[in-house]
Amino acid sequence: MTGRPVTTTLWRPTGPAELGLVRELRWRAWPPRLPEQPIFYPVLNEDYAIRIARDWNVERDGASFVTRFEVDSAFLSRYPVRQAGGRTILELWVPAEDLDAFNAHIVGRIQVVHEFR
After folding, report:
1. Do the Cβ atoms of 7 and 81 come closer than 8 Å?
2. The dihedral of CA 34, 94, 41, 38: what is its sign?
3. Using CA atoms in the order 64, 68, 71, 76, what is the torsion angle rounded to 10 degrees?
4. Does 21 reside within a domain?
5. 1 domain residue, yes or no
6. pLDDT of residue 53
7. Residue 28: inside a domain, yes or no?
8. Are 117 and 58 within 8 A, CB to CB?
9. 0.90 exceeded by the pTM?
10. Is a pLDDT exceeding 60 seen at residue 1?
């Protein structure tokens, strides 16, 4: 019997432009990184994603969104968890060249769970 793989929930603070590209990809993938973005970094907890979206991105972009999505846990094990500040400020650093493989391991759809303006 084959079932759904074990997944890890990730969050990503997302600006309006990136969210538009995710919509074009039918909520199933993240767009390629820009040349000045060598790393794709989803975060491991919702509170951290909310803080980035609400406290940093709204001022820059006028709006920001927190997305939630599931990724095959076995695939994610190749990326170490990075502590970007306090003990709950955790990120995965996915090299831009790995993004196609990362996207192929998203289970289900990317969902918008918070919006800030």
Report:
1. no
2. negative
3. 60
4. yes
5. no
6. 97
7. yes
8. yes
9. yes
10. no
